[in-house]
Amino acid sequence: MENYVIAQPEKLWSKLAVEKILRPHVLSTVAAGYAKTEEGLYEFFGRTFYAHQYGPRMIKGKIGEVLKFLAKEEMVVMEGRDLEASRFGKRVSELYIDPMSAVIIRDGLYNRAKRMTDFSLLHLISRTPDLAPRPRPRGSELDKLGVMAESQRDEIMGYAPNQFEDPIAYDVFLSELKASLVLSDWISEFTEDQILETRKVEPGDLLRLVQGTEWLVFAAQELARLFGHKDLLANMEMLRVRVSKGVKPELVKLVGLEGVGRVRARMMYSAGLKSIDDIKERSLTELTAIPTIGPSLAKRIKEQAGGLIKAEEWERARSTKPAEVEQQIMLTEYED
To answer: Apex CA 68: angle with CA 63 and CA 70, to 5°?
Structure first.
């Protein structure tokens, strides 16, 4: 009570002037029409908590810098003192990503790696400030990442800094590579425990990385559509689902079924259910023979696949003893 209710309130400090935070707010203010002139923009932000703490002159200087960046990158059109968001700017605002991330993605789409792969797209996403903080490489990983940077140079997006000329930028580059490797492990169906053991990335950090990447891949897909990179759209959609579910390409259709995750989908695939049509043709008894799939779930899965279930088939599946179905084998003991 003394510490949390009747104690003195803690001091609050606005972080609005941090450029990464301010950029999307300035863009969205213009894109939504809350400010149509430079003066209107200053007036709008002059009523914020930051301006109250530090004075309107401080926020004005920061906004001016951000506005120059947005105009330079063609997200905001400035005609005299009038402001208007471009198509690019409006879409970035709708996607609610840092404009700097949008610039990195846009430039990466135009200046691609020599050999575009899923790793290339993951590396492009890993370079954006929206994915920070990235997992930091440990001492034992530095040499391996350096070797990988050379061996997979054709797949890497953007410029690779020189280790000796710019060591700080090189460290950032290695952290981008590590994030890309962690995500590659995830979509290759590595378990959380395996990723923790090999990459030293905790499950909570992995979840944040996966969720952020899923949204940024979707944002990249939208920007690719905006700028006419139609050849990448299908690969990006496939990658988005794989990142979301943590699966290899062959399981994408299966994990789209309600009640089917990455582990259950792999079991189904190993049992010969490699497509929706395969599920449609199988009986409930055959479905319930797969570990962790009971009668109710089997019925739901087959219905989603468009299969017909006769009353006698349903009764036969329901009468199956649990020991013969759901308790066949523990997940941790199952091997593909």
So the answer is: 90
Under the banding of pLDDT at 50, 70 and 90, the label for residue 327 is very low
Which domain range does residue 130 map to? 99-246
Written as one letter, the residue type at 99 is P
Residue 42 has pLDDT above 60, yes or no: yes
Instruction: Mark whether 236 and 307 lie in a shared domain.
Output: no
122 shares its domain with 206: yes
Same domain assignment for residues 54 and 178:
no
Token pair 């990235």 is found at 134
Residue 216 falls within a domain, yes or no? yes
Place of tokens 């590590």: 178
Sequence-distant (≥ 6) Cβ neighbours of residue 157 within 8 angstroms: 108, 111, 112, 113, 120, 123, 124, 127
Within this chain, do residues 88 and 108 fall inside the same structural domain, yes or no? Answer: no
CATH number of the domain that residue 323 is part of: 1.10.150.20
- Tell me the per-residue pLDDT of 93-145, one tens digit each, with 9 for 90 and over: 999 999 999 999 999 999 999 999 999 999 999 999 999 999 999 999 999 99
Which amino acid belongs to residue 151?
S
Domain boundary among 92, 125, 154: 92
CATH number at residue 109: 1.10.3380.30
- Cα(193)–Cα(9) distance, rounded to whole angstroms? 41
* Interior angle at CA 79, CA 78 and CA 83, nearest 5: 45
Contacts of 120 (CB under 8 A, 6+ apart): 112, 113, 155, 156, 157
Grade residue 8 by pLDDT with cuts at 50, 70 and 90.
Answer: confident
Measured from the Cβ of residue 56, the count of other Cβ atoms closer than 10 Å reads 16
| Strand-strand pairing, 82-85 and 76-79 | antiparallel
Closest C-alpha among 277, 276, 234 to residue 255: 276
